[in-house]
């Protein structure tokens, strides 16, 4: 009994096994991707456009099915999923509160019961006092915060983020990077983060999966060594620069192979 | 290069109102007043010109009555004409309500099943492109109650814009939001209620604005076709009747009521659209410039 439990705990949260995705019978978006996502880690998928990183994310989210290979979740972990898209993807007709309430509402949780959770989630991204605002009244960065609050309101085991900060200015992006790390540290969820920014991937993740295009595939996995607290000091530290160079070289190699 | 920038900064410091900003505010005020005053001026001018023409050339009232004569006729015939207006409005509003129910309902059905849409959408189009004047006589043969006949005619004209707009609206759902609903395992009903319906609302309201005017037109046209079969005559019936008696002032008075009813329906649908969309939709939100 004890042995099984340990085995369960050390088993990865989910595992991609030789996952291939072909679109329209012709375009291979992803070719034989194998990857284990471990509990509590921050994992980045890094690569140029067309490398299948977003496709991989959609497959994990269950939004499309692999053409070949399979995605295996650890038993009982499938349902707990939160997603943040490239755009904030808020319902313009709903207030901030109602937008964050949505995932709970779809599970049949009433407004009154959900209130505490929604408010806590909004507070965790620094948006107390904006519950009654409509999305169009918010800045791009604030909309993204609402989107993150919505993804976190169900307390997901796994958070999928698809280039969430690509459209934001650098100042806002740095702030949101810090906030996502803080949020993850507090809630202990696993994050799979898609990006095309070397600097962002190194700053955020424990592990960077470098991908190449045509066909989309994994070329290298790089573990990032970082201090326990990643902050502005880390952003300007020589270790950070060195690891960025390593990842950047790997990416350059990947592009040269393609 | 730096001189204009310096001037700009100086202007910004001399708040609250510098000369240019004040001029802009004056222009904005003039535009607001003009939006109301200009149409009123044009209407007033036209009425004056009409009055002058009729008196100056001594046009007999059975050819062209003056505006004063039309108004006095309206007052004189108020009981007959107001009753007729109520009859026409009843048909119009019932037709509009039915159009909303059937058009909206069909649109939802179409969005639920592509097969239903493929099967029935062509019929909706045929119904729409066939002129109502040509279908109406048949309808009045097969439908015994004249009121029901009028209602069917007005409904046929009014329902298509609601159907086609709402169908389009139910389909123009943001793809990422749609994915989000999939991820959270939304049921078909939840998707319709919380995603498709709000997405379709601006489209539906646009269709309603068109249908409001069309249902009045449909009701009037149907009354003309029905002719004397309508015992409780509406406004079109009164116009026909007055034309047989060469009562031209009464024709004008009835026409005036129809026009006013049309404007009232348009204003009501526009108000509804604004009320429903003002908080979130680009079409209704005022921008600060």
Task: Provide the domain count of chain A.
Answer: 2
**Largest sheet: number of strands, sense, barrel closure of chain A:** 6 strands, mixed
Residue-averaged pLDDT of chain B: 89
Order of helices and strands of chain A: HEEEHEEHHHEHEHEEHH
Structure summary, number of beta strands of chain A: 9
Calculate Rg of chain A over CA atoms: 19 Å
Helix content of chain A: 40-55%
Q: How is the CATH topology of the largest domain in chain B named?
A: MetI-like fold
Structural class of chain A, by secondary structure, is alpha/beta
Number of strands of chain B: 0
Q: Secondary-structure element order of chain B, as H and E?
A: HHHHHHHHHHH
Rg from Cα of chain B: 26 Å
Oligomer: heterodimer
Mind telling me the CATH class of the largest domain in chain B? Mainly Alpha
Kindly name the structural category of chain B: mainly alpha
In words, what does this structure look like?
The complex is a heterodimer of chains A (258) and B (289). Chain A has helices at 2-10, 53-61, 96-106, 111-124, 140-152, 170-187, 198-204, 232-235, 238-257; strands at 14-23, 27-37, 42-46, 68-73, 81-84, 158-162, 190-195, 207-212, 217-223. Chain A has 2 domains: 37-80 and 158-258, Rossmann fold, CATH 3.40.50; 91-155, no CATH class. With 258 residues, chain A is an alpha/beta fold. Chain A has a 6-stranded mixed β-sheet with strand order 5-6-7-3-8-9, with helices on both faces. Chain A is globular, with a radius of gyration of 19 Å. Chain B is mostly helical and 289 residues long. Chain B folds into 2 domains: 2-56, no CATH class; 67-277, MetI-like (MetI-like fold), CATH 1.10.3720.10. Chain B contains 11 helices and no strands. Chain B has helices at residues 2-13, 19-56, 67-76, 78-112, 114-129, 132-142, 146-171, 175-183, 188-226, 235-244, 248-277. In chain B, helix 4 runs antiparallel to helix 5 (114-129) and helix 7 packs antiparallel against helix 9 (188-226). Chain B starts with a helix and ends in a 12-residue tail after the last helix. The relative contact order of chain B is 0.11. The model of chain B is unreliable at 1-5 (pLDDT under 50). Chains A and B meet through helix 3 of A and helix 8 and helix 9 of B.
